[in-house]
Every structure is written in structure tokens, then in C-alpha cells.
Amino acid sequence: MDISIIFKLAAIGILITVVCTLLKKSDRDDxxxxxxxxxxxxxxxxxxxxxGDLFATIKEIFNLTV
Length: 66
Known about the structure:
Number of domains: 1
Number of helices: 2
Helix content: over 70%
Largest sheet: none
Order of helices and strands: HH
Distance between the termini: 24 Å
Mean pLDDT: 92
């Protein structure tokens, strides 16, 4: 895990915010809502992957077998 993950999440957030703002200004509120939900799902997928890697590392460090 390094700092690039944080930059990826920030880039996703900024991109989704800009797209949603543009869509709301052009009276496409329904599409803006879908775009924000898709952005949230992408960000959560990245975060869940990071948490999975964290648990795998903890397992490896303490030699835990399940």
C-alpha cells in the first residue's frame, strides 16, 4: 500500500464531482445521480480491495491459518 491509492481515490472524487456538476447544470439530475452512485461504487471497490490486502498482510505477519 502506498500513497498512489489515495491519489486515485481523490482523482475519482474530483472527476465524479465535475461530471455531476456539469450534468446538474444541464438539467440532467437523474443521470447525475447515477454517475455519483457509480463513482461511489468504484471508490468502495478500491477501498474494499485495500482492506482485503490489509487482512491478508495481517494474516501473513502473524502466521494465521483458517
